[in-house]
C-alpha cells in the first residue's frame, strides 16, 4: 500500500458535503439557517456546546416549523455561564450526546447559508465538535449579522454591535434571550431588517452575493 490513502467519512457527513455540489445562485430559493449556540464558556478550544438552536428563512420569510433545537450532555459546567443560559447539568430537559446533536445539525443545514450574530464564535464551536468526531470543518457560506448591519450603513466603522444593542436599536422585544433558539429567532428578525435596509441602500433587488 502506498503512503497516500483516501480518508473516508461516515454517510451522514458525505450527504452533508454532497449538498453543496450544486450551487444555488438564486436568492429566492436560498435557504438561510439562522443559528446560535449556548456554551460552557467563550474559548472554543476548551469549552463545549450546551445547546444549538435554529430557525429557517426562505424567500425572506421566517419558517419556525423548519427549526432545530438540541440540548447536549456535558460533564463540564461553568457556574458563571449557567447564570446566563440557565442550562443545568441535570433537570427535566432531554439531552443527547454531542455526536448525535452534530449529526442532526449537519442534516438540518445541508445546502444552506448559515447566519448568526458574530458567527465566527458559533462556527468555531461547531468545528471543534466536528474535530472531536474526526470530521472536516463546516462547508456552508456564512453570514454575520453584525457585519451585515455595517453593510447597510454608508459609513463603515469598527464598532462591536451586540445582539442586545441592535435589538434595542430596532425595537425588537427580547423574548427568550440567552437561549439558543430564542437568540436564533432574534437574529433572524434582525437579518430580515438588515436585508431590507441593504436593498434600499443598493436601490435594486438583492443578490446572494450581497450577503
Automatic annotation (TrEMBL):
Coiled coil: none annotated. It comes from the Bacteria. InterPro entries: DnaQ, Ribonucl_H, RNaseH-like_sf, RNaseH_sf. Pfam families: RNase_T. Residues 31-200 form the Exonuclease domain. NCBIfam families: dnaq (TIGR00573). This is PolC-type DNA polymerase III. It comes from Lacinutrix gracilariae.
Amino acid at each position: 500500500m502506498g503512503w497516500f490513502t483516501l480518508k473516508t467519512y461516515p454517510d451522514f457527513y458525505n450527504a452533508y458535503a454532497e449538498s453543496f455540489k450544486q450551487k444555488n445562485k438564486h436568492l429566492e430559493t436560498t435557504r438561510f439557517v439562522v443559528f446560535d449556540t449556548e456554551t460552557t464558556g467563550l474559548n472554543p478550544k476548551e469549552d463545549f456546546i450546551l445547546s444549538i438552536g435554529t430557525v429557517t428563512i426562505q424567500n425572506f420569510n421566517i419558517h419556525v416549523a423548519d427549526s432545530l433545537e438540541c440540548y447536549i450532555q456535558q460533564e463540564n459546567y461553568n457556574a458563571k455561564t449557567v447564570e446566563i443560559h440557565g442550562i443545568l447539568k441535570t433537570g427535566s430537559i432531554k439531552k443527547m450526546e454531542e455526536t448525535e446533536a452534530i449529526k442532526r445539525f449537519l442534516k438540518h443545514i445541508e445546502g444552506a447559508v448559515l447566519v448568526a450574530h458574530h458567527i465566527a464564535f458559533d462556527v468555531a464551536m461547531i468545528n471543534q465538535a466536528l474535530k472531536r468526531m474526526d470530521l472536516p470543518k463546516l462547508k456552508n457560506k456564512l453570514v454575520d449579522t453584525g457585519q451585515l448591519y455595517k453593510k447597510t450603513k454608508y459609513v463603515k466603522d469598527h464598532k462591536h454591535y451586540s445582539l442586545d444593542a441592535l435589538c434595542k436599536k430596532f425595537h425588537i422585544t427580547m423574548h427568550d434571550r440567552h437561549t439558543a433558539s430564542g437568540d436564533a429567532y432574534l437574529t433572524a428578525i434582525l437579518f430580515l431588517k438588515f436585508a431590507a435596509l441593504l436593498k434600499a441602500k443598493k436601490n435594486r433587488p438583492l443578490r446572494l452575493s450581497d450577503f
